[in-house]
Amino acid sequence: MSFxxxxxxxxxxxxxxxxxxxxxCSCEPDLFIDGFAxxxxxxxxxxxxxxYIKPADVSVATGRVPAELTEAGRxxxxxxxxx
Length: 83
Prior knowledge:
Elements: H1 7-17, E1 21-24, E2 31-33, E3 36-37, H2 41-49, E4 53-55, E5 64-69, H3 71-82
Antiparallel strand pairs: 1-2, 1-5, 2-3, 4-5
């Protein structure tokens, strides 16, 4: 599944890339940036379900873990940096 990356989604990806983000370990993972809940959890869910971000530690069953970019997330940032 894929969706169009808005400016907000790209900002969220950049926060993940800067190691400023955590995500909850759940079927609908919430995103936290600088310790605060992201204002657009629907986009956070879409980024996770579309394979742009993932939890850095998949062994944790509950709670928050650092978020990290997937290969697709790194590619999205690279494309916009080159533009």
